[in-house]
Design a protein that fits this description.
5-stranded mixed β-sheet, 6-stranded mixed β-barrel, Dna-directed Rna Polymerase Ii 140kd Polypeptide, Chain: B, Domain 6, alpha+beta
């Protein structure tokens, strides 16, 4: 007997599982059972699984019977004329939705001419095998599979116009490209997804050449004049919020300028750009750690409800500040209420991000790189027609990665720019290389996309011809201004007295085991002495029992809590080690330190 499960619950057993599954599928196709149901038989487990739960990923496929797809040309014509709808195809069992479970029982052909007796379904189009992001890549079948994967990932990281009403939204962090463009080389998906409503990149002139070694290791050389003309400028918006919370006992936060005498008062200078209501005005220039919203909160947990101390010493400063390392201009301020009826203030700060050395860019073919050099236009190479590339891309990035799709896109982009119309090159149905080459020749260019170029600095002609064309490039969210980090001295954590972690907390840069090895290998062992004492502390130790002693600052004397007045010496150690000794004591382990006289 074969067990049957419905949404993971056992509901019974049957004798002939294959007939049972076929019967249910037939009934579903005839519309007797809901088209939302999926069923699969797994012989290796000897169980039938019926699925109807929400949240499954299902996709449409054409049903195949006797090597013939049920979807005919008549159906397609009726769909075009509007005599038939998509839902009608599903109801008639011509198209059915399969989930991951039922796909295990299906054999799906990509194209109609590949159908055999075994095939059960046919793809609507071969390109449907790609996901949302990958569908935006032109010529993907000319790239190695992993590059299509990388390209798809980076399309999701690109900065563009993510939504058109971004000025009335308060996303925690968002980026908006200032002059986005629609790609010259597109797939059908760009039309389906209304990509022209939210583009996320620019068409740039790209030359494949080396430039003084500044585009080694995937770096790119970019034209300074292109940047000055607004290429890849973007705004970063970050939202800061403060709520005027209410607490038990009738106490509440107060949004306003904190008074002197409050715990944590930062001084008059810190609140100088706040108006009377304590909320910064729009268009105010703000810098790292500046106060945006002034606020004071009551100290809590001081005993029972009637024992609260009133007065200024029971109030602490809890103002909202700009993140450490950020800068910008206050863009807009929202004052509203929460569901509970408390006052809520949101401040959106914008910062203009102009491309700089270290910013990350990528084409749609997984070829990512950071800016290695920004060159004035007069020093860039130029063609006979005076065309200057926006980006010089390293040709060494092509052979090992085999992204032929990018080369074809550059050729197609060149044709598109000259011809003045967009080129469609969807997956598995490309605009052929032969056609591109013949079009280039018609317009008086070399059919391989290469041109004679001259050095902008010397005016000399380059010996080699250089491959140049147009390509769609994206600015990615990984901007160096959001990542750059360094510190000398700064805050430490309470527990271990070691520097804090992370850029936002002004953290230190950790030197680990391997970095230590590098310094020793370089013969810079003395640098380690300085690096590895971030939490160096003098600890009083009793020479008799080897326990940590106590310093009584009032009586100005040191004594051992175990032995009383014994000899006590100061020992320098890492505070983390002293913490470990304390933890051992808490587990009733006696960590005795043997100290020698100096």
């Amino acid at each position: 007997m074969t067990d049957v499960f419905l949404d993971g619950r056992f509901i019974g057993s049957i004798e002939n599982p294959e007939e049972f599954v076929n019967e249910i599928v037939e009934k579903r196709r005839k519309g007797i059972i809901s088209s939302q149901l999926n069923i699969a038989y797994h012989p290796h487990l000897d169980e039938v699984r019926i699925l109807s739960d929400s949240g499954r990923v299902r996709r449409p496929l054409i049903v195949v019977k006797n090597r013939k797809p049920l979807l005919t040309k008549d159906h397609v014509e009726k769909l075009k004329k509007g005599e038939m709808k998509w839902d009608d195809l599903v109801k008639e069992g011509i198209i059915e939705y399969l989930d991951a479970e039922e796909e295990e029982n299906a054999l799906i052909a990509l194209r109609e001419d590949e159908l055999t007796e075994e095939h059960t379904h046919l793809e609507l189009d071969p390109s449907v095998i790609l996901g949302l992001s990958a569908s935006f890549i032109p010529y993907p079948e000319f790239n190695r599979g992993d590059r299509v994967n990388y390209g798809a990932k980076m399309i999701g990281q690109s900065i563009g116009l993510f939504i058109s009403n971004y000025l009335s939204r308060t996303d925690t962090k968002s980026n908006v490209l200032v002059y986005p463009q629609v790609p010259l080389v597109q797939t059908y998906f760009h039309k389906v997804m209304n990509y022209d409503r939210h583009p996320s990149g620019s068409n740039i002139i790209i030359a494949l050449a080396c430039f003084e070694g500044y585009n080694m290791e995937d770096a790119i050389v970019i034209n300074a004049s292109s940047i000055q003309r607004g290429l890849f400028w973007s705004f970063m918006f970050r939202t800061y919020e403060a709520e005027q919370k209410r607490y038990m006992g009738g106490q509440e936060d107060i949004i306003g300028i904190p008074q002197p005498g409050v715990r944590g008062y930062a001084g008059e200078e810190a609140y100088k750009h706040l108006p009377e209501d304590g909320i910064v005005n729009p268009e105010t220039i703000v810098n790292s750690d500046d106060v945006l919203i002034g606020r004071i909160s009551p100290l809590r947990f001081l005993g029972t409800m009637d024992q609260f101390i009133t007065g200024i010493e029971n109030i602490r400063e809890t103002s909202v500040r700009l993140r450490h390392g950020d800068k910008g201009i206050v863009d807009r301020v929202f004052i509203t209420e929460t569901v509970e009826g408390t006052k809520l203030v949101k401040v959106v700060v914008r910062d203009l991000k102009v491309p700089e050395i270290g910013d990350k860019f990528a084409s749609r073919h997984g070829q990512k790189g950071v800016i290695g050099l920004i060159v004035p236009q007069e020093d860039m190479p130029f063609t006979e027609d005076g065309i200057v590339p926006d980006i010089i891309f390293n040709p060494h990035s092509i052979p090992s990665r085999m992204t032929m799709g990018q080369l074809l896109e550059i050729l197609a982009g060149k044709v598109s720019a000259i011809k003045g119309e967009q080129i469609l090159s969807p997956p598995f149905n490309p605009f052929s290389e032969k056609d591109i080459r013949s079009l280039l020749q018609q317009y008086g260019f070399k059919n391989d996309g290469r041109e004679v170029m001259y050095d902008g600095r010397t005016g000399k002609k380059f010996e080699a011809e250089i491959f140049i064309g147009s390509c769609f490039y994206q600015k990615l969210d990984h901007l160096v201004s959001n990542k750059i980090h360094a510190r000398s001295r700064g805050p430490v954590t309470l527990l271990t007295k070691q520097p804090t972690e992370g850029r936002s907390k002004e953290g230190g840069l950790r030197l680990g085991e391997m970095e230590k090895d590098c310094l020793i290998a370089h013969g810079a062992a003395l640098a380690l002495k300085e690096r590895f004492d971030s939490d160096k502390t003098p600890v009083p130790v009793c020479t008799n029992c080897g326990m940590v002693a106590v310093i009584d600052n009032v009586k100005n004397k040191k004594y051992c809590p175990v032995c009383g007045d014994s000899k006590i010496v100061e020992v320098e150690m890492s505070y983390a080690f002293k913490l470990m000794l304390d933890e051992l004591k808490s587990m009733l382990i006696y960590p005795k330190m043997y100290v020698r006289e100096e």
